[in-house]
Amino acid sequence: MPVINVKMTKEDGGATIEQKEELSKGITELFSKIFNRSASNAVVLIEEFNTDNYYIGGKSITKIREEQKLK
Amino acid sequence: MPVINVKMTKEDGGATIEQKEELSKGITELFSKIFNRSASNAVVLIEEFNTDNYYIGGKSITKIREEQKLK
Amino acid sequence: MPVINVKMTKEDGGATIEQKEELSKGITELFSKIFNRSASNAVVLIEEFNTDNYYIGGKSITKIREEQKLK
Amino acid sequence: MPVINVKMTKEDGGATIEQKEELSKGITELFSKIFNRSASNAVVLIEEFNTDNYYIGGKSITKIREEQKLK
Amino acid sequence: MPVINVKMTKEDGGATIEQKEELSKGITELFSKIFNRSASNAVVLIEEFNTDNYYIGGKSITKIREEQKLK
Amino acid sequence: MPVINVKMTKEDGGATIEQKEELSKGITELFSKIFNRSASNAVVLIEEFNTDNYYIGGKSITKIREEQKLK
Fold first, then answer.
1. What's the mean pLDDT when you consider all of chain E?
2. Which helix (H) or strand (E) covers residue D4, if one does?
3. Mean per-residue pLDDT, B43-66
């Protein structure tokens, strides 16, 4: 307990193993501290999305990044 | 708001960027129209599955497509 | 095919059955039109969240709505 | 970005609003710090499960808690 | 390992605890047997949906059940 | 009905098509038997995770497997 699913984009070569470990460990410890429960069974799942498959407000992250670069 | 997750199979080379954009934009606008809410924060996530990983009634899409071709 | 999961907040008494039907039917037809595939097996699942369980940028929808009312 | 889904059990009256806010804010900040990206669009969704609907190793949390109390 | 999410409708009073236990235990054992891996960390999550929130081919389970009764 | 999502790690070359078929068919039949409902519309989705993207208790399956080999 619990199961935590992280859905993020794969950008700039993608998250490194170190970043993914830091995130998973951090979320697990945070949960454990706030709810005062053992987190030995906590599951963290990281799913990395192509920027063409992730949309905010109907616009792909690919397009959003392009627009941000033009600014 | 909202978060919409689309799980579909990757067939015939997979969905094109244009198709994915049309789907994401269409769903976002539909939601916004029906609920009369801003959809600037709407997230659409598209996950494409190998046809060996998607089953209906215990049969893979791979097999279902093979059977459809025989008909 | 496909499976589409809609996660939205329950506000103002929640979505009506008519709104949920319109959304599900609309998404199903949109998918069918764009990918030119039968959608007779398309599954749409609607999950409604308490506004205390949905966060954007670390802030709950409950708080976001309160701030919007003050403006 | 990103979308983070937390599936946890509802125990001892359930998580308080303060606990849920602390968790969501903490995860959002952690993500932002590790990946050095803005998290203004980060979505955190918290789903609370009845202990009869959450199983580890084929055993419900309801039963696991009962066994822990006997120890 | 693994995490298995079951999304089903709540009908006829809903699934009993016995049914949910049988399903979770059965899936866990099946996984363990097929992949020859320990399933002590397997998580099964059961989510029950109102029949107005579950659609197949754009039609709610509520309507599908009504039509089945008429036949 | 229902939709069942299996999230597992990709190890030792990954699950074979035969294993995935056996799992999907087995889960579908189990569901059908327990709830005495037709499962012709049951959807099983299998998602395979890199062992660096799956964490238990804050530790990646990659690390857990390394430690198991040392024992």
1. 95
2. strand D3-9
3. 97
Smallest Cα distance from C41 to chain F, Å: 7
**CB of F45 less than 8 A from some CB of B:** yes
Inspect the structure and tell me whether chains C and D have 3 or more CB pairs less than 8 Å apart. Answer: yes
Q: In B, residues 8-37, which contact D (CB 8 Å cutoff)?
A: none
Average pLDDT over residues A32-41: 92
Global pTM value: 0.96
Shortest distance, CA E58 to any CA of chain F (angstroms): 13
Q: How far apart are CA E22 and CA B68, in angstroms?
A: 35
Cβ–Cβ below 8 Å for E60 and C21 = yes
Backbone angles phi, psi at D44, to 5 degrees: -120, 125
What whole-number distance in Å separates Cα of residue D63 and Cα of residue C30? 45
The half-sphere exposure of A5 on its side-chain side, counting CA atoms within 13 A, is: 19
For the cut 90, the answer to whether the pLDDT of residue A42 exceeds it is yes
Alpha helices in D1-71 (DSSP H): 17-35, 61-70
